[in-house]
Please model this.
Amino acid sequence: MIMFLNSTRYGLIACRYLVRGYYEGVWLSAPEIAGHYGMNVRALTPSLRQLSRAGILRSRRGGSHPGFILADDPERVSLLDVMLALEG
Model:
């Protein structure tokens, strides 16, 4: 059985939802992502920051639509890329 850190699980789940945002051209907020999956936003936020620092996500603050979006086409982002960004 494979065991992931909670931050890794949350990051993987968030990326799944962010694929939709990428194709729709919509920035998604941490509370929106967390609410969609019934997650605690405080537990999700560190994963989103790590993925942003790794260049997998883009983030923006303020404005009319703050949040996160995938930095590249989802077909070019591998599961391994996400895992390495989250677990090192």
